[in-house]
């Protein structure tokens, strides 16, 4: 799982431009039956030891937040818009990659500003790829090209990991691990597109699969940093998998939530819940697709999410894997 995770994090794939991520995942499927639908979702059938009474769907999204080029200026710098939700503070001074071309996000020098305390707005920043003028920039970049953060995958501290795109390349790596495992029940695994711009792929995938129960494998915001306390921490690194009861898009199935918390306690799996109603994920689209589905989200706590330096812990990743396997057994057994 960790090898898949590192490889996937280093690939580039903003919403609607997930090609390299999809190609890697497809290369790992071997003889497993799959389809790629019109939105680019990969839908894989994995046979288990038994057929469940409920149609089970596990889902993760392939896309990451990033940028899209909107204009090339005469001096060769590039205007851009963000693809997905990126805090402006996470942009300035970062290295980015547009295809094979590297660049940096810059703005007018701060010391020339009348108020140096103000953070520049997104439309006051630009991507500089080192081109001397517009004509040279156009040899490498066109409006509509996408950019991702250029960020190394680094293991550091006490089993911590730093990378871009942990949201949601971790979920994809977890699905690949499950595909390589012996499972108690048949499941349909979906690698979905365009989550970051409105849950586009998951709704189409769920309409095709028509699940009775869906488990969404995600990353979620951990705000356990200096100066934050109580419920505002949301969740914490090192405290295990996150099982949500509600976020801004979904009220999760109560019985599934209770089952997850009970299983974790019975099997000694570290687990926590979110202490603030925040964020959202593909569960909102899956829940209402077709005739509807009972949904649950299982997430990796991640600091500095949607940035070039997202951070997570390996112990939490393994808690997510353990609980996902336990939930497949539980959901398959349920009537």
Rg, alpha carbons? 20 Å
Query: On the 0-100 scale, what is the average pLDDT?
Result: 95
Shape: globular
- Would you list the SSEs in sequence order as H and E? HHEEEEEEEEHEEEHEHEEHEHEEH
CATH superfamily of the largest domain: Zn peptidases
Instruction: Using the coordinates shown, work out and report the CATH topology of the largest domain.
Output: Aminopeptidase
Strand order of the largest sheet: 1-2-12-3-13-16-14-15
Largest sheet composition: 8 strands, mixed
3D structure, described in words:
This protein is of the alpha+beta class. The chain folds into 2 domains: 2-64 and 164-333, Aminopeptidase; 66-149, Beta Barrel (Elongation Factor Tu (Ef-tu), domain 3). Helix content is 26%, strand content 26%. It has 8 helices and 17 strands. It has helices at 2-10, 19-27, 134-137, 166-179, 200-209, 254-267, 283-288, 314-333, and strands at 34-36, 42-46, 56-61, 66-72, 78-83, 95-98, 101-107, 125-128, 146-149, 154-156, 160-163, 187-192, 213-221, 241-243, 271-272, 294-302, 310-313. An 8-stranded mixed β-sheet has the order 1-2-12-3-13-16-14-15, with helices on both faces. A 6-stranded antiparallel β-sheet has the order 5-4-9-6-7-8, with no helix packed on it. The relative contact order is 0.19.
